[in-house]
Here is the input.
Amino acid sequence: MRELSELFAQNRIWAERLRTESPDLFRELAQRQAPGYLWIGCSDSRVPANHIVGLLPGEMFVHRNVANLVCPQDLNCQTAIEFAVDALKVRHIIVCGHYGCGGVQAVLRGTSLGLLSRWLEPVEGVRRQHAEQLAHLGDETRRLDRLCELNVIEQVAQVCAAACVQGAWDRSQALTVHGWIYALSDGLLRDLGVCVAGATELEAAYRTAVTARPPGGTGPEVTGGVADCAASGADR
Here is the structure.
């Protein structure tokens, strides 16, 4: 039991399947990685980045944390972004949240979770900034859906504010930042319309994103924009 033998067995099955489908895959991966995407998502076990978009190993660089936060003081996240942009030259950065996020729900309900509550302070900042919009929604499920969306929008803006992203745009490096959200209920991604390919696009896209989205996050795909991160205690 201590060796978790079932996981090793499943690993062998997985590796054999990939070798059958792509005989040169592991040899090529051992030489280099050249992903086209950086995925910044939630740690939730139900949202496996590569799987839900059907990508093979090596095609997506991934950073995950609770509630898919992008904070200037988080060296783990910031170095992942910098490496993806400056070294790997990814062309797309995707911030992906999900409906029903437990971290976002804890903020909405005011639940104290010890150390995790400190980590979630940026989400509390998002909640406070958009409190009036959230208050107009009819029930907790709709408020939670919308806060999950707003949190993605705010984190997209934090990505856009990163020095390495600004530097990439200054030197005309092709780089687009996207905001998506995933529905656990049907396994499908929704595009929040947050698509920023240059620093000058950010302000207008943010205003569009936070005002144009109809309330109730389980509806069809939307078009919108990006946002300033309202992280509690963080400079805008």
